[in-house]
Fold this protein.
Amino acid sequence: MAIAYNKVVLVGRLTRDPEIRSTVNGSTVANFSLAVNRQGKNDNTDFIRIVAFGKQAEFASNYLSKGQLILVEGSLHINKWTDKNDIRRETAEVWVSQMTFMESKKAHQENNMDIQVEDSYKKSNVKSIDDSNDLPDFDDPFSDLEGDLSSDENPF
């Protein structure tokens, strides 16, 4: 008797909000990716495709968002197909059995503050100011003091 065990445990951040869809029989499916750091000689990041079904998909839809740190438990599935050009393709994905938050909502919001501020800045119509052209000319309030100070040998 052969023994086999297929369990995957990942901790990473969502690279995008979950994409939700329904199957023809009405089941909910959520797809998203996790950025998972790989430690070693050269620290790299792997982007793992995650698929959740039913209640797990509804949970993902309602509570998960880009940048959130979560733990995913599931099993590895390899999808194989032939594309329209008759080329054999395959992709790996983790089918979720359980998900757990790895940070508080407040910590998630603080971690994403820089991203949100940067995104909102890019979307706004903020105009930069060029000091030489955009500011009106003002009289220097201290210009009349230059003569007074230069005539004194020891002004202090």
In short: The chain has one domain: 8-123. The longest strand covers residues 69-82. The chain is about 25% helix and 40% strand. The CA atoms of residues 6 and 75 lie 5 Å apart.
